[in-house]
Design brief:
36% of the residues lie in helices and 20% in strands. The chain is an alpha+beta fold. The model has no long low-confidence stretch (mean pLDDT 95).
């Protein structure tokens, strides 16, 4: 990966709607080599997918919760089962294994607090081996970006 590849990646992560022609113009190369570079970056897995980001608040999803989860039983099978089950919950946008006090950290987005309570009662605590859940409700969003600092 060279400086041109980094510029391409940076432009695409800021605006995935840019055409190959627009990217080529911005970094001062011709369109064909730009297209080949983008395809190579995709083939290498550096570009995993292109998505549209929606405005959650305009869609009525006003509550963001960071939930820490401890399993009641450890072990590879228990971890893998929980991870499979959490994958299918649309309210969970992100899930991380954690070092330290908690087994997992989840980022959950819901319409309101009642929806979150229903999610906890009917979905999250019914997953295999969930022993303990602590909810941390976000009050104000200061920064939310998916742009990686690749420069």
């Amino acid at each position: 990966m060279d400086g041109i590849d980094i510029k391409i990646l940076d432009l695409l992560q800021q605006n995935g709607n840019l055409t190959t022609h627009e990217i080529a113009e911005k970094i001062n190369i011709s369109q064909s080599p730009c297209w080949r570079r983008i395809n190579r970056l995709e083939d290498q897995g550096l570009i995993s997918k292109r998505v549209v980001l929606l405005d959650r608040e305009k869609l009525g999803m006003d509550v963001v919760v960071f939930a820490t989860v401890n399993l009641s039983a450890q072990g590879r099978n228990n971890l893998e089962e929980f991870e499979r089950e959490v994958q299918v919950l649309p309210e969970v946008l992100e899930c991380y294994t954690m070092a330290g006090t908690w087994d997992y950290m989840l980022k959950i987005v819901v319409k309101d607090i009642r929806h979150y309570e229903k999610f906890i009662r009917e979905k999250l605590i019914t997953l295999a081996n969930v022993g303990e859940v602590h909810s941390h409700i976000a009050v104000t969003e200061i920064k939310n970006t998916g742009i990686l600092p690749i420069n």
